[in-house]
Amino acid sequence: MTIAFIALFYLGLTLFSTTHVPVEAIGKPTLRAQPGSVMTRGMQVTISCEGTSSAQEYYLYKEGSPDPWQTQTPLEPGNKAKFFFPSIQENHAGRYRCYYKTQVGWSERSDFLDLMVTGFYRKPSLSALPSPVVRLEGNVTLQCVSQLGYDRFALTKEEPQKFSWTLDSQYIYSNGSFRALFSVGPVTSRQQRTFRCYGYYLNKPQVWSEPSDPLEFLVSGAPETTKQPQNMSEALTVSPPQDHTVENLIRLGMSGLILILLGILVFEACRSQRRTLTAP
Predict the structure, then answer these.
(1) What distances in angstroms separate CA 22 from CA 5, 27, 104, one per listed residue?
(2) Inside any domain, residue 137
(3) Rounded to whole angstroms, how far apart are CA atoms 50 and 73?
(4) Contact 98, 176 (CB under 8 A)
(5) Is position 280 within any domain?
(6) Domain boundary among 189, 220, 251
(7) Which CATH number is 88's domain given?
(8) Domain limits at 215?
(9) Using an 8 Å Cβ cutoff, are 206 and 93 in contact?
(10) 280 residues of the chain, pLDDT tens digit each
(11) b vs e for 108-124, b when ≥16 Cβ sit within 10 Å of the residue's Cβ?
(12) How many domains does the structure of the chain reveal?
């Protein structure tokens, strides 16, 4: 009797939980920074965490901090929270994640967002090799150089949307400087491009130097349409035509000589046959 009562009790709890507690899949939120993730010291930045409309509270977490960096409770049902930084500084640089809480439970944590803050060290210099004039569909190498011993360099494309690439620095023994070589291309349109580069240290990878002076591409000319020879045999096939008059005369002379020799042989053969027939 007691066992049956316990079984009926747990069955009732199961039915109650399945009919009265909403079942909801809690997805991973999306984390973004506006106007961008590479910001100059002192600028205003907004980090938004987008979840679901059932979120009751949002949490912004900065890597290295034991507690949430900030929390926010939506004033009304909404699927997004915005964390505002009126003047971004060095302590704001880092890796961020966000998550939120609903009646059902906690969401997954978002993917990492790296927030870079620039303007703390001496700016490097940026140049194009061999020149900033690039042919359409051509390639160019951008060189970022500094006398400071930066561990890595970052290259950013300013328009139409900012991107960044990073490379380890290389020491140049001839002048004691540090540099990184970024290969850019092929250039597929005549749209203007503006690049800057930064230096930073591995112990603070999100704290960057002042930006280099901007470097703009000048796209000129039409794309290359003539295929360049890849090896010597191909190069020979595209060499300019030559005058074969002498060779043709030699061939004609040889042909005539062969005909004369054949005629002599036929004549001698006929004469030998006549001698044989007239012999007693």
Answers:
(1) 27, 15, 7
(2) yes
(3) 13
(4) no
(5) no
(6) 220
(7) 2.60.40.10
(8) 125-220
(9) yes
(10) 444 444 434 444 443 343 333 334 578 899 999 998 999 999 999 999 998 888 889 999 999 887 777 888 876 666 889 999 999 999 999 999 999 998 888 999 999 999 999 999 999 999 998 888 888 888 889 999 999 999 999 999 876 556 679 999 999 998 899 999 999 878 877 767 789 999 999 999 999 999 999 998 788 765 544 333 333 222 222 333 344 455 555 666 666 677 777 777 766 766 666 555 455 5
(11) eebeebebbbbbbbebb
(12) 2
Bridging pattern class, strands 38-40 and 113-118: parallel
- Peptide bond connecting 29 to the previous residue in cis, omega within 30 degrees of 0: no
Amino acid at 231: N
Whether the CB-CB separation of 47 and 85 falls below 8 Å is answered with yes
d(CA 55, CA 42): 31
What are the tokens at 44? Answer: 């205003």
Q: What is the largest CA-CA distance in the chain?
A: 149
Q: Which residues contact 46 (CB under 8 A, 6 or more apart)?
A: 33, 34, 82, 83, 84, 85
